[in-house]
């Protein structure tokens, strides 16, 4: 297979990763918004909505992982790591929803913000990869 086609396939795979990261960022942004509401006394409903958005973000992260696997197949020398999933255990759900308190809400909110930053950094590294691939495709080097 010629080099240009390999680069194009890698670029397409990287663009898919970015699209999936954007979905995860949107889910975590929504979880953060619900988390703020929850911190200021939103109650069980806001805890439930926040957890639903965290679940959506974790689903998005799985899709990122699947897309990254394809990208790594296309460009084996790319060494990137996915952010860890946001905690969504049964224990966390029970604590956050049924024993709704400011301490649990604050911890979960901090986790959401940390994961948002990691995703944004990861997205930036994939965008840089796309830029490098584009330059190589245009210049042939």
Architecture blueprint of SSEs:
Elements: H1 3-39, H2 43-74, H3 90-98, H4 102-139
Helix pairs in contact: 1-2, 1-4, 2-3
End-to-end distance: 16 Å
Arithmetic mean pLDDT: 75
How many helical elements?
Answer: 4
Provide the helix percentage: over 70%
- DSSP summary, beta strand count: 0
The coarse silhouette is elongated
From the alpha carbons, calculate the radius of gyration and give it in angstroms: 18 Å
Unreliable stretches (pLDDT < 50, length at least 5) are 77-91, 93-99
Listing every helix as H and every strand as E from the N terminus to the C terminus, the arrangement reads HHHH
Query: Major β-sheet, in short?
Result: none
Structural class: mainly alpha
Structural domain count: 1
User: Strand fraction band?
Assistant: under 5%
Condensed summary:
This protein has 141 residues and is mostly helical. Helix content is 82%, strand content 0%. The radius of gyration is 18 Å and the shape is elongated.
